Amino acid sequence: xxxxAASAASPAAPSVAPPKPExxxxxGYQSATATRTVNEPKPSIxxxxxxxxxxxxxxxxxxxxxEQPIRNAPFTQDDLTNAWKSFCDYYSSxxxxxxxxxxxxxxxxxxxxxVRVKVNSKYTISDKLNWNALQEYLFDRLNNNQFxxxxxxxxxxxxxxxxxxxxxxxxxxxxxYPFLTQLSFDLELEPEA
Length: 193
Known about the structure:
- The protein has helices at 77-91, 96-103, 122-125, 128-142, 166-176, 179-186, and strands spanning 108-109, 114-119, 148-153.
- By secondary structure, the protein is mainly alpha-helical.
- Helix 1 (77-91) runs antiparallel to helix 2 and helix 1 (77-91) crosses helix 4.
């Protein structure tokens, strides 16, 4: 049996309205235009959704780079070589593989402030992040940002295929030692195919 004082549906129990807020206080109440109460936490933004600031002027682009001052200090081939070696020492802790690939290269200062580097692998050239780091380091070290770093793949000659079978090995040896032809004929030797 339910006690009469605890019964919410009892007609004798007066309904109590919540107290009115003090002037200027909105704690716990919803305004006519609000969709949540003040005490509720703000909803989090799901990952993957990008938010934009409305305080940025429309003329300012997100991807706009800050313009760099022109630095045009002259430098020599020796200065370039020393800066290159310095980069390899500095950058070895960041990317050992890239440092190993470029440490033995010889940059050449050419016409029109072009620095050419002969690279033996197209994979080294495709590493744009590290090439940009190298160029920025050289800009700072040489106090000149007007040159262009141009890596070029060297033309490596294709080596002839190595002899594999006994017949191919024998034919290769006959090219190097012509007397083997006569010797194999005299001894009636034929390598297996």
